[in-house]
Design goal:
It is a single chain. This protein has helices at residues 10-17, 101-108, 125-132; strands spanning 21-24, 27-38, 65-70, 74-81, 88-99, 145-146, 155-157, 171-173. It is 13% helix and 27% strand. Helix 2 packs across helix 3 (125-132). The chain has 188 residues and is α+β, with helices and mostly antiparallel strands. Strands 1, 2, 3, 4, 5, 6, 7 and 8 form an eight-stranded antiparallel sheet that branches. A hairpin with a 2-residue loop joins strand 1 (21-24) and strand 2 (27-38). The chain is globular, with a radius of gyration of 15 Å.
Length: 188
């Protein structure tokens, strides 16, 4: 697998995911952006209030997917980490499709819209989930992750797209990469 010890806390695992390749349903994506969520200590985490039927996979064994339906539109995916029962995870926010481009494009492209540029195929957590073909059936399944070729330069900054604990520097990304969600400029 990737050589990452998923038993570590999410803020330690998150930067180690950058540059790794997730493979799922015929598509491979090199991760360029992730966010760490720290269980019951993090008001922004789905697991903040404890274990429920919906978030149970986040409390399960590390190295598995936690997939949830976001805003009734997208399936987003987290990689579960930290010891079982902790509720930590890393949201996959963005990446570069490196194989299975036609499959990812077919999943993402709507016939009534302009063509999607390659850098936008897996940019944003909903788009990444759609490109991978994530569904609730994938919730709790082992993640297939190839190791990165080299450690990329990365930065940490505030999380985006949330209101609770948003300023926590738990968003990790490769600066200047076109597949990273906006805003790219804020650093910590």
């Amino acid at each position: 697998m990737s050589g990452i010890d998923f038993h570590q806390s999410a803020e330690l695992v998150a930067p180690l995911l950058l540059g790794c390749v997730i493979e799922h349903n015929g598509v491979a994506i090199r991760l360029t952006e992730v966010e760490a969520y720290l269980g019951t200590e993090d008001p922004a985490a789905h697991t903040y209030r404890g274990k429920t039927e919906r978030n149970a996979a986040m409390f399960g064994p590390p190295g598995r997917l936690y997939v949830y339906f976001s805003y009734g539109i997208h399936f987003n995916g987290n990689i579960v980490c930290a010891p079982e029962g902790t509720g930590h995870g890393c949201l996959m926010r963005g990446g570069e499709v490196i194989s299975g481009r036609d499959t990812a494009l077919r999943r993402r492209q709507r016939p009534d819209r302009k063509p999607i540029p390659d850098e936008n195929l897996a940019r944003g957590p909903g788009n990444l989930g759609q490109a991978l073909g994530l569904t609730l059936d994938d919730n709790g399944t082992p993640v297939i992750l190839r190791p990165r070729e080299a450690e990329p330069e990365w930065v940490a900054g505030p999380r985006i797209g949330i209101t609770k604990n948003a300023d926590a520097p738990l968003r990790f990304y490769i600066p200047g990469d076109k597949t990273v969600s906006s805003p790219r400029g804020r650093r910590r």
